[in-house]
Design goal:
The complex is a heterodimer. By secondary structure, chain A is mainly α. Helices cover about 85% and strands about 0% of the residues of chain A. The longest helix of chain A has 30 residues. Chain B is built from seven helices and nine strands. The chains are: A mainly alpha, B alpha/beta.
Chain lengths: ~220, ~240
């Protein structure tokens, strides 16, 4: 466990010293959402209607943005070989790196989301559920993304390939995430959507690191 | 301390047979020096020994117990130094080293890191971020990992690249000390590293149709460097 926390700590330290990854994701998220009123017009009812979907799509894209870097630097400088030879199981290393990635890029999205919801005139009923769905959903995005990041290591144009691989897998998360918020705004219970999101998270938590570690072993060969 | 051995090893890279029917044995205190021209499979053999690369045939074993049966125990016994230095540019030398020491289970990684840097003659770089280190300093930092996170078997892939004469002499002393304590070393080299009493393994003896097929050879030569080249290329091409 202490080894696991060491790796999380190292990745957090790297992210904070480099700075850019953490801020770029959240800046991209904010800008992406801010573009919509310019595109579809400032009509409050239309914005309120599309707010949940827009915020969720922007969150998907923002989390995708930094995923390419998840294993890339470790792969390039040889750290990945050493990690795979260490006594920390590679599956645990994938969880640790994904957790650090989520703390750096996912959590700021959750914090920024309510602000953007105000900007888009979202019904106040939806704010709590918005934060809740993102709290359940962004770890899923990071976990699923870690598989793609591991698979595309060493590939040319890995970032584009990663998007093509991963975005279709994000669709269920998007449906239930945005669905829960719409349900809450329309006076229905968001519970089934939230349960399904939690179910996806429960499935991704063991499966994604397992698949990611298998892909990493291929990459270091 | 047990004997590390490999028997009937065959390694395939892409569709090229790198070596076949290779046997080796390293006893406690022993050293195995891998010799051979570029592309003869020195790096591949070291990666096979480390467990990074699976041989398509043959077995590795510790005292007759197959590595495939106990991969975790094998990992705990091995410390691998490859071509890449695994130095993070934004972490200081001491932080870089302390992380690897902690990952190997060191009780006080920060102290172990400082001691190891001291032994390699570079205590002054402890607080210097990785991006300001020279190639030789990075290499010394990478070699310091062997001391900060001790393991019985050292696998060294051209460990003296970028080192100056003084550092090579220092490193020879560390290898001798490690062997005197019963440790084992397998290393590949193009420069002379003194390993008194070490066994030499000529890899071209195990390379099929190597000597007369120069085209094939030339291609093999680029195998490792091509990999690095690809990585750099990717870095440039990434959006």
């Amino acid at each position: 466990m202490s080894r696991f926390l060491r790796l999380v700590g190292r990745d957090l330290r790297l992210a904070l010293r480099q700075g850019s990854d953490a801020t770029i994701a959240v800046m991209f998220f904010v800008l992406c959402v801010v573009l919509f009123p310019f595109g579809v017009g400032p009509e409050p009812n239309i914005l309120a209607r599309i707010a949940a979907g827009v915020i969720w799509v922007a969150a998907l894209l923002a989390s995708l943005l930094s995923l390419e870097r998840l294993f890339q630097t470790d792969y390039e400088d040889g750290s990945l070989e050493l990690l795979s030879l260490s006594s920390l199981p590679l599956e645990a290393a994938v969880v640790a790196k994904t957790l650090a990635h989520w703390l750096v890029t996912g959590v700021p999205l959750i914090v920024a989301a309510p602000l953007l919801a105000v900007l888009l005139n979202m019904d106040a009923e939806g704010f709590g559920v918005l934060v809740l769905t993102l709290t359940l959903g962004t770890p899923i995005l990071s976990l699923i993304g870690s598989i793609g990041a591991a698979l595309t290591l060493g590939a040319r144009r890995g970032g584009v390939l990663l998007s093509l691989l991963i975005l279709p897998l994000y669709i269920p998360v998007l449906i239930f995430g945005a669905g829960a918020i719409d349900a809450a705004i329309n006076g229905l219970t968001p519970r089934p959507h939230l349960l399904l999101l939690a179910g996806i998270l429960a499935a991704a938590l063991p499966l994604a690191p397992w698949a990611g570690a298998a892909a990493l072993r291929q990459a270091v060969e | 301390m047990p004997v590390f051995a490999g028997s009937e090893l065959t390694c395939l890279r892409g569709d090229r047979l790198v070596f076949t029917g290779l046997d080796f044995r390293i006893a406690p205190g022993g050293a195995l020096v891998l010799l051979g021209p570029n592309g003869s499979g020195k790096s591949s053999l070291l990666r096979v020994m480390a467990g990074l690369l699976k041989p398509i045939r043959g077995t590795l074993s510790w005292d007759g117990v197959s590595v495939a049966d106990e991969p975790d125990a094998h990992r705990a016994k091995v410390q691998y130094v490859g071509h890449l230095d695994a130095v993070k540019p934004v972490l200081t030398a001491a932080e870089n080293l302390a992380f690897w020491a902690a990952l190997a289970g060191s009780g006080d990684p920060a102290a172990a890191a400082l001691r190891a840097l001291d032994r390699l003659g570079v205590p002054h770089i402890a607080g210097v971020p990785g991006r300001y280190l020279s190639a030789g300093q990075k290499r010394r930092l990478n070699l310091a990992r062997l001391l900060a996170a001790p393991a019985p078997l050292w696998l060294l892939d051209e460990p003296t690249v970028a080192l100056d004469r003084a550092a090579i002499a220092l490193f020879e002393g560390l290898i001798a000390e490690h062997r005197a304590e019963g440790g084992m070393v397998a290393l590949s080299t193009h420069t002379d590293i003194a390993t008194p009493g070490g066994t030499e393994l000529h890899l071209d003896d195990f390379t099929p149709y190597a000597a007369d097929d120069h085209d094939e050879y030339g291609e093999g030569d680029g195998d490792e460097s091509r990999e690095h080249h690809d990585r750099h290329h990717d870095e440039g091409a990434a959006p």
